[in-house]
């Protein structure tokens, strides 16, 4: 039992590291997107795109994450992205 306990903890850390890597990749991609939008004279925020993202992620959510939990995650991710990139 103790062995499985440690295996689960290791897997959780690996998963959390993957989340951090995915967020950093998202920031890099959004940075590139915002640069392209600036060249085209477009604003950085697109409410319709955010709505479509929320819908797509809701459809993709087949796990234990509740609809409310997913909504919170998306809101926090979008807010974090805007905060991180606005600080640069």
What's this, in brief?
The chain has three helices and no strands. The protein is mostly helical and 88 residues long.
Q: Would you count the extended β strands for me?
A: 0
Radius of gyration: 17 Å
CATH domain class: Mainly Alpha
Q: Average the pLDDT over all residues and give the rounded result.
A: 96
CATH topology: Chorismate Mutase Domain, subunit A
Task: Please specify the SSE layout and strand pairing.
Blueprint: H1 2-40, H2 47-60, H3 67-86
Question: How would you describe this structure to a colleague?
Answer:
- The protein is mainly α and 88 residues long.
- The chain has a single domain (2-86), classed as Up-down Bundle (Chorismate Mutase Domain, subunit A), CATH 1.20.59.
- 83% of the residues lie in helices and 0% in strands.
- The protein is built from three helices and no strands.
- The protein has helices spanning 2-40, 47-60, 67-86.
- Helix 1 (2-40) packs across helix 3 and helix 2 (47-60) packs across helix 3 (67-86).
- The longest helix is centred in the first third of the chain and has 39 residues, at 2-40.
- The radius of gyration is 17 Å and the shape is elongated.
What descriptive keywords fit this protein?
Chorismate Mutase Domain, subunit A; mainly alpha
């Amino acid at each position: 039992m103790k062995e499985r306990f440690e295996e689960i903890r290791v897997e959780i850390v690996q998963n959390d590291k993957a989340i951090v890597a995915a967020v950093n990749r998202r920031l890099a991609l959004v940075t590139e997107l915002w640069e392209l939008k600036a060249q085209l004279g477009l604003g950085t925020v697109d409410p319709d795109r955010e709505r479509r993202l929320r819908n797509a992620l809701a459809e993709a959510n087949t796990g234990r994450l509740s609809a409310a939990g997913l909504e919170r995650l998306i809101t926090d991710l979008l807010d974090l992205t805007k905060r991180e990139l606005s600080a640069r």
